[in-house]
């Protein structure tokens, strides 16, 4: 076809963290002798000025980094960062702490679980940055990540999706097949531990389709079983998704585009590329977290693995006509491989959810005709036995849909996938609305434009998700793209899709997160699971915040016959059904700041009380 699908990518523009360019100061003129003597006198008279000036120039660490590469050290753990201790959990709590799929929906701790969260692929990269004058607030990257996740939890957000790799060689991760830079790995360890600290769950993607460092094309270039390159890659040092212009124009540009499309598709069948991928999976699921000592496969902070973010095996090219079959075989092989190594976590694809030839009646819901030629086939792909739930992405701006058609498209896009997910031959599977957002150009990033253009898209998307939950449809939740994380002074952290903490959109997100929190925490764990039913308690006199376990509330909630009217468990069960109370499966969950019973968490007992109780 004359306009291959490669020109209309499904993913948003994704830019790696880059330090702003420093402005070179002109050389200073000679200072007259009088002023030099005066300056020296002032410095001697006011020595306290020296550390103040040094702090502003070099950062709190007293170090100055001339290049970004020199500032990448891995997370700086200050004396204030203390990894949280492993909570005392019962065998039942440990078993039920991993996410499961039960009866068309997610279940965790023997009750429904809904994702209300965001994408932030650059969290690992941010955590690598040392404290330096150019960072926002003169904080280290580790502090910025900590502040970001703490703020998210305080808003009721419970899930973050990120990459288990980085997107540029500036932030090292896997530097060659099976060879890793410990700075990147420790940063991933840190982000997982920080998420656990604030009660957030994490979805990790093993690899990215797009033209990134550590991505699909990198694996093919590493391969000894793939043909050697005959044309130079146009993607060197690329920041963000490729556009048609990057290939060039005319016959040479068309030849390069076809060459790269054919080479990219080799990833799904090339022996070495598949071996490298399997080794990467094995390395990650068996990694021992350097901060908390947990092996990744045993860490319930992780709730699911994406096999690949937004896969492309483009069948519009004659040499790629078998792409649908090639991709389906790859999914079957790799999902089975992950399951064999990690029986604890859910597995999903990470695709947009385009309909393919197996369901011609559903292709009407695709954004454009090119969507069927990307190798994806939503129903066929999701039917695989080791794919636990389906993912759907929505990028109507990138998919060239008219602005006035976007709300209706999004509603049909979500609804059609829930219907398809509920009628799979392999059994009903939940649908996660894993990526959605609203593109705004730089001149549209104003308070008024955000309110007029972005907020309505978030409101309508969340309304569709909430309607599906109320209707008991197979919806797992949603994750917006993306949270803006300012790391460097002068950096445009928003980009075209980012939501800043100060944007009006954040209030829309928080309202939805609170809805999801109420839905999830209005149901106690089923009594047969031998878990608790923890409720927040507040001592009005002392202000002490704590949590109390009332298992009778769970018994009364699920009882077929009503309990005694004066029974405390029955009263709490009635309050839950009326939306007047929240219940948590463990004391640790109840006491988590933001995601638990109190925004500030439970009160730490005073030393005096501890001595008295000892």
- Please, how many helices? 19
The computed structural class is alpha/beta
Q: Can you tell me the number of structural domains?
A: 2
CATH level-four homologous superfamily name of the largest domain: Glycosidases
CATH topology of the largest domain: TIM Barrel
- Give the end-to-end Cα distance, rounded to a whole number of Å: 77 Å
What about the largest sheet? 8 strands, parallel
What is the arithmetic mean of pLDDT?
Answer: 85
**CATH class of the largest domain, anyone?**
Alpha Beta
Silhouette: globular
Proportion of beta-strand residues: 5-15%
List the defining traits of the structure above.
single chain, 614 residues, alpha/beta, TIM Barrel, eight-stranded parallel beta sheet, 19 helices, 10% strand, globular, disordered N terminus, disordered C terminus, signal, membrane
């Amino acid at each position: 076809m004359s306009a291959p699908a490669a020109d209309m990518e499904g993913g948003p523009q994704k830019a790696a963290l880059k330090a702003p360019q420093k402005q070179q100061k002109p050389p200073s003129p000679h200072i007259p002798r009088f002023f030099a003597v005066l300056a020296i006198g002032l410095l001697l008279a006011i020595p306290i000025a020296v550390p103040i000036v040094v702090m502003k120039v070099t950062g709190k660490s007293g170090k100055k980094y001339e290049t970004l590469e020199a500032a990448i050290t891995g997370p700086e753990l200050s004396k204030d960062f203390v990894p949280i201790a492993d909570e005392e959990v019962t065998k039942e709590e440990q078993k039920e702490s991993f996410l499961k799929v039960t009866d068309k929906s997610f279940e965790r701790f023997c009750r429904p679980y809904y994702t209300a969260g965001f994408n932030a692929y650059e969290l690992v990269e941010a955590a690598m940055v040392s404290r330096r004058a150019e960072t926002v607030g003169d904080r280290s990257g580790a502090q910025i990540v900590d502040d970001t996740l703490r703020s998210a939890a305080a808003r009721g957000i419970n899930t973050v999706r990120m990459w288990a790799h980085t997107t540029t060689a500036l932030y090292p991760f896997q530097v060659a097949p099976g060879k890793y830079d410990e700075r990147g790995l420790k940063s991933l360890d840190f982000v997982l531990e920080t998420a656990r600290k604030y009660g957030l769950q994490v979805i990790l993607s093993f690899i990215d389709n797009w033209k990134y460092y550590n991505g699909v094309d990198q694996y093919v270039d590493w391969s000894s079983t793939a043909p050697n390159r005959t044309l130079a890659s146009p993607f060197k040092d690329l920041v963000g998704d490729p556009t048609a212009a990057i290939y060039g124009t005319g016959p040479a540009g068309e030849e390069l585009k076809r060459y790269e499309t054919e080479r990219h598709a080799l990833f799904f069948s090339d022996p070495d590329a598949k071996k490298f991928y399997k080794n990467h999976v094995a390395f990650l699921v068996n990694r021992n977290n350097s901060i908390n000592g947990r092996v990744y496969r045993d860490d319930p902070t992780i709730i699911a693995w994406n096999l690949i973010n937004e896969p492309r095996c483009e069948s519009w090219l004659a040499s790629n006509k078998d792409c649908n079959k090639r991709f389906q075989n790859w999914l079957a092989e790799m999902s089975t491989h992950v399951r064999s190594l990690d029986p604890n976590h859910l597995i999903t694809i990470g695709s947009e959810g385009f309909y393919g030839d197996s369901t011609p009646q559903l292709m009407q819901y695709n954004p454009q005709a090119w969507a069927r030629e990307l190798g994806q086939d939503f129903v066929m792909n999701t039917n695989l036995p080791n794919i636990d739930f389906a993912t759907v992405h929505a990028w109507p701006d990138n998919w060239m849909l008219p602005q006035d058609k976007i709300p209706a498209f999004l509603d049909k896009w979500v609804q059609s996938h829930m219907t398809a997910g509920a009628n799979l031959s392999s059994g009903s599977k939940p649908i996660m609305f894993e990526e959605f957002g609203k593109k705004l150009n730089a001149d549209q990033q104003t308070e008024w434009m955000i309110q007029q253009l972005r907020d309505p898209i978030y409101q309508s998307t969340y309304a569709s998700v909430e309607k599906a939950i109320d209707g008991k449809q197979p919806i797992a939740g949603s994750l917006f793209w993306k949270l803006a994380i300012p790391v460097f002074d002068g950096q445009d952290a928003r980009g075209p899709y980012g939501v800043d903490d100060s944007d009006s959109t954040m209030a829309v997100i928080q309202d939805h997160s609170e809805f999801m929190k109420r839905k999830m925490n209005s149901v106690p764990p089923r009594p047969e699971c031998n878990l608790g039913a923890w409720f927040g308690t507040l001592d009005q006199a002392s202000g002490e915040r704590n949590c109390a376990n009332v298992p009778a509330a769970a018994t009364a909630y699920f009882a077929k016959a009503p309990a005694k009217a004066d029974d405390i468990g029955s009263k709490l069960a009635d309050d839950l059904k009326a939306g007047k109370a929240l219940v948590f499966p463990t004391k640790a969950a109840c006491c988590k700041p933001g995601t638990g019973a109190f925004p500030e968490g439970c009160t730490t007992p005073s030393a005096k009380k501890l001595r008295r109780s000892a």
